[in-house]
Specification:
One of its GO terms (molecular function) is P-type magnesium transporter activity. It is a multi-pass membrane protein. It holds the Pfam family Cation_ATPase_C. InterPro entries: ATPase_P-typ_cation-transptr_C, ATPase_P-typ_TM_dom_sf, Cation_transp_ATPase_P-type, HAD-like_sf, HAD_sf, P-type_ATPase_IIIB. By secondary structure, the protein is mostly helical. The chain has two domains: 65 residues, HAD superfamily/HAD-like (Rossmann fold, 3-Layer(aba) Sandwich); 207 residues, Up-down Bundle (Calcium-transporting ATPase, transmembrane domain). The chain contains ten helices and three strands. Strand 2, helix 3 and strand 3 form a beta-alpha-beta unit. Helix 5 runs parallel beside helix 7 and helix 5 packs antiparallel against helix 8. The longest helix has 29 residues. The two termini are 30 Å apart.
Length: 286
Amino acid sequence: MVHYFRKGPHQKLQVMEGLRSGGGGGVVAFLGDGVNDALAIRVADVEISVDLGTEIAKEAANVILLEKNLDVIAHRVLFINTIKYIKMATSSNFNNVFSVLAWLPYQPIQPLQLLFQNLLYDSSQATIPWDNVDPEYLAAPTTWNARSIARFMIFLGPTYSVFDICTFLINWYPFGIRDQHSTLVPLAQTNWFLEGAITQLFIIQLLQTGKIPIIQSRVSVSIVALTTLVSGIVFAIPYIPKLSAVLGMSRPKPEFYGFLAAMVMGYVILVHIVKVIYQHMFKEWL
């Protein structure tokens, strides 16, 4: 460890620039409270000052400590969970767009149904800020990486669409829904609503870790409770007369639940395989 004492503003600036240009992928933070700290604060990756510092130091910083300890900036868990939410949401929405573009002679899902599905999915993610985080993600600071988010979305999004297409094929062949004038179109839309909503809920379990969920890493109790509640609501919707009428749904045929169970099992397996491939290729997950 190297210590520096009694350095002037430009000397502090040189030290910070040297640390940042040293390589190694590290994140450089600087905490200062005086006028002579402003230059060094400005060039740091994490710019920190204190509430009792000079105005110029506080202006240069992007984090102001209100207490005399660093516990107030222990935001790694929150940051990782924020990245979880963004990657889940972007990849899932990309999947919806990708699937809606599939050619069908009827509308695969109504706009109100899709909005309600997204409302349920977003509601199920409400406790993600308090989710468990694997220790390896907390070992070092993580920086914002828009390219990583875009890569995750493009790589994972089409994977989910495989089972949307399976649902379309089930509607087409076993159920014979092939025409926009068919009286069974609401059934087809209900089937896709159920498949999309349930697989989105599994996404929360599958994507929150790069490991095997439940066996190697577990989500928080609050997420399990909330996703269980939302899944119960999803299955109940087609059987609530007034709500299903507003959403334009009909009761699924009993045999569809067998297809749905098989698709969910296949979904879990395929997503895990793609997750392993993604981590092998890009050496990252969250």
